[in-house]
Design brief:
Keywords: DNA-binding. This is DNA-binding protein. This protein is mainly alpha-helical and about 100 residues long. The chain has two domains: about 1-30; about 30-100, Arc Repressor Mutant, subunit A (Orthogonal Bundle), CATH 1.10.10. The chain has helices at about 1-30, 35-40, 45-55, 70-80, 85-100, and strands at about 30-35, 70. The chain has a two-stranded antiparallel ribbon with strand order 1-2. The longest helix is centred in the first third of the chain and has 28 residues, at about 1-30.
């Protein structure tokens, strides 16, 4: 009996994981995200998402005064801001700047 329950639990966990991956794939194809899609896409909690929007830290739209929407391309730009350069990239920049002098 316990083995059957374990098998069912594993089956439901695997099914749930597959559904999550399918949802992620569908979200990735959208051009406009609602608030829940945005939080899933970025990988943050809803409370942190609300904090980001209330601080105007992430670009978003509020056409009806309540519902939040996000342009996926803008979210991607926001996610890729402030890049951290590798040591190799920094060395190349220093070399490039030194050769200009």
């Amino acid at each position: 009996m316990a083995e059957n329950q374990n098998s069912l639990v594993q089956f439901f966990e695997q099914t749930n994981n597959k559904l999550d991956r399918i949802e992620q794939g569908l979200i990735a194809q959208k051009t406009v995200l609602n608030f829940e899609d945005f939080c899933r896409y970025v990988g943050i909690s809803k409370s942190y998402g609300y904090k980001l929007t209330s601080l105007r830290a992430v670009p978003h739209f509020c056409p009806h005064g309540k519902t939040l929407f996000f342009e996926k391309a803008e979210v991607d730009k926001w996610l890729l801001q402030n890049p951290i350069r590798t040591h190799t990239q920094l060395q190349k920049e220093v070399s490039s700047n030194n050769s200009r002098k």
